[in-house]
Amino acid sequence: MFTIDAHLDLSMNALEWNRDLTRPAAEINAREKGLQDKPDRGNALVSLPDLRKGNIGLVVATQIARYVSPDNPLPGWNSPAQAWAQTQGQLAWYQAMVDLEEMRQIRNWTDLQSHLDYWNDGEPISQKAIGFILSLEGADSIVNLSYLEKAYESGLRALGPAHYGPGRYAFGTDSSAPMSQDGKALIRKMDELGIILDVTHLCDLAFWDALNLYKGPVWASHNNCRALVDHNRQFSDEMIKALIERGTVIGSAMDAWMLSPNWQRGKSTPIERNVNLETVIDHMDHICQLAGNANHIGIGSDLDGAFGKEQSPHDLDTIADLQKIPKILASRGYSDQDIEKVMHGNWLQFLETAWE
Predict the structure, then answer these.
(1) Which pairing describes strands 218-219 and 250-252: parallel, antiparallel, or unpaired?
(2) Coil, strand or helix: which one is 105?
(3) What percent of the chain has pLDDT over 90?
(4) Four-residue CA torsion sign, 120, 123, 125, 127
(5) 310-333, pLDDT tens digit by residue?
(6) What gap in Å lies between CA 300 and CA 342, rounded to an integer?
């Protein structure tokens, strides 16, 4: 079934992990054998061939570069200008993939309709270019608001103001503060340009500020439920209900620590904790119970988002195995129509409403 994944850090993997994503994940992992500079070496699940194998024809693909102040222990860049330059290198990689006909950039509804026709024209999927919508995870690299205009001109269509820790425009996971004046100005400029607000990673205070201020389309590209795994990275039921009222689609993330309470990085394993796609669907189902329907869930896997097989559902060998989801949903009583909504329909409906 045609599938949309609303969050993949493709350019980060290409540039920072030095992975040739035009090759299958098995080849990437073989090339990384023996490397120990990153904890997920040799554990990649994502590549362009594996996306095609899984009929994942459209993704939301990120740029990401954090600014860190001298007292911030997180990894990142020492100035916003350096962070901007990093995102521009990532953009150059996407543009190279477009030139090589490995990917196609989607900027508007007309582009998306054309891509859907192309993907379903009966020609072999193994030869097709993956469609991508460009997103920015964390706004630290936006030097000032004129840079947001530049980013929009380059095709940026979604933005999450925060990532981990204190950001220049908003605080994110494991930190807390209301939205700053600069952050509020960013939100207003996003509204003016028509950039989708991604509320993923916003701390609770910034989440409510952004949701109250922003008038345009809101999604959560990769997020799960606090009721099932109690952590500030997840959404509370109150937050989920507010997003449902806004017509939001929430993409289920597949990082095992977000799926298993008290996960210990580097110690816990998906098999030991029995983290699998059923666990992911537990979170989807919780949102459906709050909504009373299946109109607000989708896939935002975040696979290979600085983790790999060692911290992913154990029934995934590569990202192509997302095609196991329809059978699991059917076994839980989801209708064929609702299964299509999860795999692609809700994201398409959201984008049609946002872009038409």
Answers:
(1) unpaired
(2) strand
(3) 99
(4) negative
(5) 999 999 999 999 999 999 999 999
(6) 11
Assign residue 220 the CATH number of its domain. 3.20.20.140
Rounded Cα gap, residues 200 and 208, in angstroms: 12
The whole-angstrom distance between residue 53's C-alpha and the CA centroid of its chain comes to 20
CA distance 33 to 334: 41
Answer positive or negative: Cα dihedral of 126, 129, 133, 137. positive
Take residue 220 and report the two structure tokens written for it: 């959560």
Instruction: Residue 72: give the domain boundaries.
Output: 3-355
AA identity, residue 280: V
pLDDT at 114 over 90: yes
Structural domain tally of the chain? 1
Confidence of residue 356 (pLDDT cuts 50, 70, 90): confident
Tokens standing for 293? Answer: 């329907």
Report d(CA 236, CA 226) in Å as an integer: 5
pLDDT at 347: 98
Task: Report yes or no: 130 and 101 within 8 Å, Cβ to Cβ.
Answer: no
As a 3-state breakdown, the chain gives helix, strand, coil percent values, each rounded to 5, of: 45, 15, 45
Rounded to the nearest 10 degrees, how much is the dihedral formed by the CA atoms of 278, 281, 285, 288?
-160
Alpha helix positions (H), the chain: 10-15, 25-31, 48-53, 80-99, 109-119, 145-153, 181-193, 204-213, 237-245, 270-273, 277-291, 325-331, 336-340, 346-355
**Cα dist. 327→115, 332, 343 in Å?**
26, 9, 12
Neighbours of 306 (CB within 10 A): 17
Look up residue 136 and give its amino acid: L
pTM equals 0.98
What value does the mean pLDDT take over residues 187-214? 98
Burial group, residue 29, by CB count within 10 angstroms (0-12, 13-18, 19+): buried
C-alpha 32, offset from chain centre = 24
Amino acid code (one letter) for 262: N
